[in-house]
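sry for the spam today, last one i promise. struct tokens for design, 143 residues
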């Protein structure tokens, strides 16, 4: 299903890797008592690298969509996931809203834990869109 805000350039990739939830960063002490350093756990790093390698082998090495806004849909299966990404016509992120869309959702979900559900792992489907006025200079015609 194509969003009205998306254009024709798109990719569809099946990633035959079992989905893994991103683990929280860990802290390790630095040598000689110089504080702590945060690091991404190895299972998360391995999963992210495997996804990047597989998708890169399908679509090429450079960022296909550059810095342009995109619409993304991910269908999660037990044995892998399907990624569908297409160019968005324009950025409609409301002015003053900062941060990655997934991090904004995570904060909202964490606030809803224990209020509308016990835990956000109960969420089975999710659709998230920025709603605002397209910004000047962000329309990409002719792609």
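last one done:
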């Amino acid at each position: 299903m194509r969003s009205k805000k998306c254009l024709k350039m798109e990719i569809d990739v099946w990633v035959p890797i079992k989905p893994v939830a991103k683990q929280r960063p860990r802290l390790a002490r630095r040598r000689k008592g110089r504080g702590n350093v945060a690091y991404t756990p190895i299972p998360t790093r391995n999963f992210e690298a495997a996804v990047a390698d597989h998708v890169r082998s399908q679509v090429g090495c450079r960022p296909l969509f550059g810095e342009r806004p995109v619409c993304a849909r991910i269908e999660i299966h037990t044995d892998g996931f399907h990624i569908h990404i297409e160019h968005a016509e324009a950025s409609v992120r409301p002015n003053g809203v900062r941060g990655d869309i997934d991090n904004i959702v995570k904060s909202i979900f964490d606030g809803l834990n224990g209020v509308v559900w016990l835990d956000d792992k109960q969420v089975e489907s999710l659709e998230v869109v920025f709603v605002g006025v397209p910004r000047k200079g962000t329309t990409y015609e002719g792609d």
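The chain has a mean pLDDT of 84. ok im logging off now
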